[in-house]
Amino acid sequence: MFNFFKKSQSQQSGVPKKRESLESLWRLTKILMENLEFEDVVYKTVNSLLNELGYLKSGYRIVVLSLVDEEAGGLRRIALSETEEARRATSVSTIPFERIVIPFSATQNLGIKVLMSGKPEVTTHWPDLLSPPLTAEAALTNQRSAGITTSMVYPVFARGKAIGTLIFSMVKKYQDVTEEEKDLLWGFTELIGLAVENSMLFTKLKNTSQQLTQANNKLQQLDQLKDDFVSVASHELRTPMTAIKSYAWMALNRADVDLSEKLKKYLVRVLMSTDRLINLVNDMLNISRIESGRIELLPEAVDLISLSKDIIDEVYYSKSIEKPIKFHLLEQSLPKVFADPNKLRQVFLNIVGNALKFSPPGGSIIIGFFTDGQSVETYIKDEGPGISKDDISRLFKKFGRLDNSYTATASSGGTGLGLFISKSLIDLMHGKIWAESEGVGKGATFKFSLPIATNELVEHADQYQIKPAGDIRELEPAAL
User: Fold this and answer.
1) Sorting pLDDT into bands at 50, 70 and 90, what band is 35?
2) Which molecular-function annotations from GO does this UniProt entry contain (predicted)?
3) How far is residue 297's CA from residue 387's CA, in Å, rounded to a whole number?
4) Are 446 and 355 a contacting pair, CB within 8 Å?
5) Are 179 and 13 in contact (CB under 8 A)?
6) Strand 101-103 relative to strand 74-80, pairing
């Protein structure tokens, strides 16, 4: 695991001594790996050798960890052992410990020399360790205050690169340091390199995770503000637009006033424009409620044939005068589907409304079904302008209209929001929705499938309900 025996000059260490050193390093490994927080690791780094392995009894008094600081351009003091000698040295220092940075250019400093050579150094003269930034006189004052005789500087490696140094200061002479102690110090520095690197990576990852969490929370807040703004703005727009529509309708239909054809044309345009804007407001409100989770979903067994007839009657009687369209309902024996009837009605109205808008006068709209025993597929086929293959993927996206020109928008009165709302609702009901077309000019077929209302689903319908806390709103009616 460690190569410290290779770095020892001693060839006389016996097996018992090696075993004892390995056991000591194993204990240090367990201590340092208990926590990956950087601050905890560096604190344990400078204290574990003295306290856990009893090196205080062997004359060691101060351990200092320094790491490369590229931004500061030097070797920065990171951690200092908590001993009386260390406190005495820092109490008289002219520069606080945490502000001591040895510049890379100070090649005469033993810390920089060890960092560059990768080999340990020994000194009895603290100016070799602290100058610069401290003056020689200040460094000697620190040394005398601590009562230190000898200091050994070892490189700290990570992935084969020197990332810092460890200084071991003691009250005994270098000649009294045993080969076993040197062996253990080498192993200790290699262990520290691994522990410090892991803790730095862990702390960096943790900080990045916290930053991402904060950014995500901020985005959620902004998204909520957006939803709130859309909701408030939509409500504020709908009230005056409804009033404008009412006044325009009354002006157009007054029996006691003869209006010129030009004025009638203008009033019809006002009615059409207000209708489109009100529909847009309704769609924006619906999207806001769906995306913010403020709608209720109460699934039950729904008869698709009966619902289709209701939709056809509603659309036919409300739009047959404006645009004659033939509806063909292909009735067949079908199982009921498991869905929220009100939300499914919204989907039907959106798709049938689109078919009505894009079908030519006198055209046909076909509503049919298919079942595979697991789900029921509903399809609505029109004779409209069709959809190119490149455009189909954009259909169910927000504002996913195929032609964004003013002319197309004005003629059809749509924004693409209806299909986005339909997909959102079908997804909530655990179904699928898609569109097919043979190409431009060949009409389009919109399909959606929903699960069959089995006895098990109906009996446990409450498990599939969505009942959000707080403000619950029904969806605004779909535009036709």
Assistant:
1) low
2) phosphorelay sensor kinase activity
3) 32
4) yes
5) yes
6) antiparallel
Whose CA is closest to 446, among 363, 374, 353? 353
Contact 218, 57 (CB under 8 A): no
Residues 6+ apart with CB under 8 A from 284: 230, 234, 417
Map out the domains of the chain with their CATH numbers: 4-207 (3.30.450.40), 295-464 (3.30.565.10)
Candidates 343, 263, 266; CA nearest to 298 is 343
Stretch 344-348: mean pLDDT:
95
CA 250 vs CA 237, 261, 266, 322: distances in Å: 20, 16, 14, 19
């020197």: which residue's tokens?
162
Q: How many residues does the chain have?
A: 480
Angle CA 312–347–449, to nearest 5: 100
The dihedral region occupied by 470, where left means phi > 0, alpha psi between -120 and 50, and beta the remainder, is left
Q: How far is Cα 77 from Cα 68, in angstroms, rounded to an integer? A: 9
Q: Determine how many CB atoms are found less than 10 A away from the CB of residue 223.
A: 12
Which of 149, 161, 152 minimizes the C-alpha distance to 129? Answer: 152
pTM of the complete model:
0.53
The rounded distance, in Å, linking the Cα atoms of 480 and 413 is: 10
Q: What number of CA atoms fall less than 13 Å from residue 238's CA on the CB side?
A: 15
243 or 137, which is more confident:
137
Q: How far apart are CA 82 and CA 84, in angstroms?
A: 7
Q: For residue 112, what are the contacts with CB-CB under 8 A and spacing of at least 6?
A: 75, 102, 103, 104, 106
| Spacing of C-alpha 272 from chain mean position | 43
Amino acid at 164: G
Which structure tokens are listed for 227?
A: 């939803």
pLDDT tens for residues 429-477?
Answer: 999 999 999 988 899 999 999 999 999 999 999 998 888 766 666 777 6
| Residue position matching structure tokens 């008094």 | 61
Residue reference for tokens 């769906």: 290
> Residues 66, 145, 148, CA angle at the centre, nearest 5°?
60
> How would DSSP label each residue in 55-92?
TTTTTEEEEEEEEEETTTTEEEEEEE--SHHHHHHHHH
Q: What is the pLDDT of residue 302?
A: 97
Residue 27: the pLDDT is 67
Cα–Cα distance, 408 to 406 (Å, whole number): 6
Q: Check whether the bond before 133 is cis (ω within 30° of 0).
A: yes
